[in-house]
Amino acid sequence: MTQSAIYSRVVGTGSYLPARRVTNQQLADELATRGIETSDEWIVERTGIKARHFAAPDQTTSDMAVEAAKRALEMANLSADQIDLIMVATSTPDFVFPSTACLVQSKLGVTNGCAAFDIQAVCSGFAYAMATADNFIRSGAYRNVLVIGAETFSRILDFNDRTTCVLFGDGAGAVVLQASSETGILSSALHADGSYSNILCVPGNVNAGAVQGEAFLYMDGQAVFKLAVKVLEKVAHEALEKAGLEASAIDWLIPHQANLRIMTSTARKLDAVEKMVVTVDQHGNTSAASIPLALDVAVRDGRIQKGQTVMIEGVGGGFTWGAVLFRM
Ligand code: UT7
Questions:
Q1: Which of 22, 100, 143, 271 is the Cys-Cys partner for 93 at CB 3.0 to 4.6 Å?
Q2: Is residue 77 part of a domain?
């Protein structure tokens, strides 16, 4: 008897943004009180960002992840106990340990003992998590996997550093990936180059009961910019090639929402500027949450339809990068 192929299909999406929305002007006014000069004009021109959301002081990454997950589960028509695996892509976990995924499992009320772990690939985290989930599903190990990207980057921003603090925001996005005989994920490609670890990092750790080193985000913006443009184009073509598709097959391109200039430059090379989903203007850079947030927005507003081909691609600290091509 021949067994039919198993695919991983997106059967639910969800997202969550914290209530506090801060426009560029509001942020510039706040920074001015510390003697830091910036402007709405500079931020929009260099990044495309107009506003971002910041978590409340008592709101954690797992809190936001749970809200996004509930919405994805509702769309998938699944109860919490039907989940076989929970993965949270985050660089801003609630604690050193336990993993944010374990906290999410508990807060969702999942009592079936399903596996739960975090993925740490910074802004590429969601692409890494989708590809990992796909492998678990295609191997037959799991049927329903909750894949979440959630971040509270506001906690690691140095609000005295105008070159970074205007760029990032908080939020969460989630998908439910399900085993199916229908085509879902078509291909994925993941990469890393640890020799660039120092151009985007939070170079601190916990030692002897205190933070040693710096617990603030550091970024060499121009070095990241150059590398990002180069690797995103390459990895997009790699994923297309693996699936045996041309760039023209892409219906929707969802790049990591870091900077509109980087996003547009990559989209141009794929001739997909019109097909790009853009949320960076309203969300800022939410690291691992940016792609599932954008995906959920475009699914819920009706742009992304069943049967269409979507490419997600991310790049971030590590240095890491990756792309996943799937059919909705
Ligand atoms: O998610 C991880 C991936 N991260 C990224 O994709 C970020 C990649 N990098 C970038 O997006 C860009 O490099 C930035 C948006 C971070 C910076 O844009 P840029 O065009 O590379 O600007 P720059 O660093 O060359 O700075 C230009 C000028 C400088 O002033 P001088 O030296 O020309 O006088 C900066 O001091 O802009 C100044 N500047 C600012 N001015 C007003 C830097 N930050 C600000 C600011 N407001 N917030």
A1: 100
A2: yes
